[in-house]
Amino acid sequence: MSTALAPLPESSTAHLVADRIREAIWQGTLRPGDRLVETDLAERFEISRGPVREAIRLLAPEGLIVLRRNRGAVVANPTFDDVLEVYAARMTLGELALATIARRGVDRATFDEVTSLLDRLRDPIVQADPVSMLEADLAFQDALMRLSDLPRIADMLENSGRDAASFVRLLGITYESTDHDALIARHERTLAAIAATNPAEAVTAWQDHIRLTVAEFARGYREVDDLSVDQHPLFAYPLSASRQEKS
Amino acid sequence: MSTALAPLPESSTAHLVADRIREAIWQGTLRPGDRLVETDLAERFEISRGPVREAIRLLAPEGLIVLRRNRGAVVANPTFDDVLEVYAARMTLGELALATIARRGVDRATFDEVTSLLDRLRDPIVQADPVSMLEADLAFQDALMRLSDLPRIADMLENSGRDAASFVRLLGITYESTDHDALIARHERTLAAIAATNPAEAVTAWQDHIRLTVAEFARGYREVDDLSVDQHPLFAYPLSASRQEKS
DNA sequence: CCGGCACAGATTGTTGACAATCTACGATTT
DNA sequence: AAATCGTAGATTGTCAACAATCTGTGCCGG
Where would you tag: which of A194, B136, B147, B184 has the fewest CB atoms within 10 A of its CB? Predict the structure, then answer.
């Protein structure tokens, strides 16, 4: 299996620490505005400040934490507008990636491999835990976008995905109400479009997915009541759908 | 003036070092494949390894250098495809930003401030030095995109801009042949569209700018002879131009 | 002659101590 | 009483030494 072999793990101490911190934020242990004191974290993880410092610098460009010169880092306090912005970027970049994938086509083995990642989303045990569900969903979408052979854009999408997930958690949006079956169905629609090498459909499916996701969050977010995603400037029709023409 | 007051400089030692390294790459002092040894750099800058290490980690996500676990960092060895990918991302994200700007409109003072940044591009002394020209051009485009009030997307654009500039230099593309007047004219066209709050025109102007830029690079890059940018999948018409409708 | 193994040098990863900076609180001045 | 100043504590920024890892070279057995 190409997944089992060769993808050497990216596990430096700093990365491990960064993952832990991200996890803490997703789980609600760390809340917006909380200070990240290098000394404290170093003590807690029983390592020195160096790797902790590196982990913080690793998290900063993700927008998860804010750091100010000589004053340390605090957990970001995002607004719903930040979520919208991240998803807008995610939508556009995803269109580019998916149009490229669908245009070029994917060999069967690789395609099946990505498809199989959806199984985790169907696992009741995974579905029971919002954080696991989030991770499985992101893992699938990352693998999907990697098919584009556009590594930098895939990286940006991966970052934006983590960003989005973190922001949603930080805003206290209740993700539990999500209809898992509908989510999977949307992903399957995108996959079908790719299998049919139909860029237009792939892009449309993706746009719908993003818009539905954002709309769902808007419903789950108490402080936004009058947001109609379809009319929001960043997501308004007609979108960049025309990119896939001339295939 | 809002530019003179309050924008406290982001000058940590690590950032200064990162700038120096970037500059060295732009000037050709550091070439693709060259190793970045922490000890050497620390000696040269007469500081300890800590800040140097941090600078390298700062440069890595820009794609400027590649770092492998326990094996240090080397200057990236990009291909022309990398340039295309970066510009494709830059084009899409720029469309989003510019459509937003043109849709909302910009107050006169801020607009003039950004416009005035074009003056540096007209300075013969700046035009004489490719690196200065590059920096002035990036400074203008960054300021322009910041008008969108989409800080994350502006950040991505800033990074992609530096990326693009670095890659172009690393590929040894001769930037000297650039028609400075034409470049300025393209920027002025975008500005005019914004002033007229015409999103469609702003997006189109931007697309044309990117495509012309890429085409220019393709001409300056010996090893690519049969590239016609207009037909390249990542830049093919029709593009996401439709985004700005329903203004 | 070829593949595996072990060693030495070089380089990165980590650590704890020291220096510089910031925040908060209270004293001083007007 | 309000504002300014100054000090103490906490925290980040920097450093040099140590530990772990990697690369390459030469030896050995086959």
Answer: B184
Residue B234 pLDDT: 74
Instruction: Reduce the DSSP state of residue B113 to 3 states and report it.
Output: helix
Whole-number pLDDT of residue A59: 94
Question: Is 70 exceeded by the pLDDT of residue B100?
Answer: yes
Query: How near does any CA of chain B get to the CA of A210, in Å?
Result: 16
In whole angstroms, give the CA distance from residue B20 to residue B34. 15
The pLDDT, as a whole number, for residue B156 is 95
Distance CA B20, CA B45 (A): 10
Q: What is the pTM of this model?
A: 0.89
Residue closest to A235 by CA, chosen among A82, A79, A87, A78: A87
- The per-residue pLDDT of chain A, averaged, comes to 86
Indicate whether A241 pLDDT > 50.
no
Tokens, residue B20: 């120096």
Instruction: Give the gap in angstroms from C-alpha B13 to the nearest C-alpha of chain A.
Output: 11
Q: Got the DSSP string for B183-237? A: HHHHHHHHHHHHHTT-HHHHHHHHHHHHHHHHHHHHHH-TT--S--GGGSTTTPS
Query: How would you label B68-88 residue by residue, b for 16+ Cβ within 10 Å and e otherwise?
Result: eeeeebbbbebebebbbbbbb
User: What is the Cα–Cα distance from A157 to A171, expressed in whole angstroms?
Assistant: 21
Determine contact, residues B188/B118, Cβ cutoff 8 Å: yes
Residues from chain B that touch A233, judged by Cβ atoms under 8 A, are: 99-100, 103-104
Length of chain A: 247
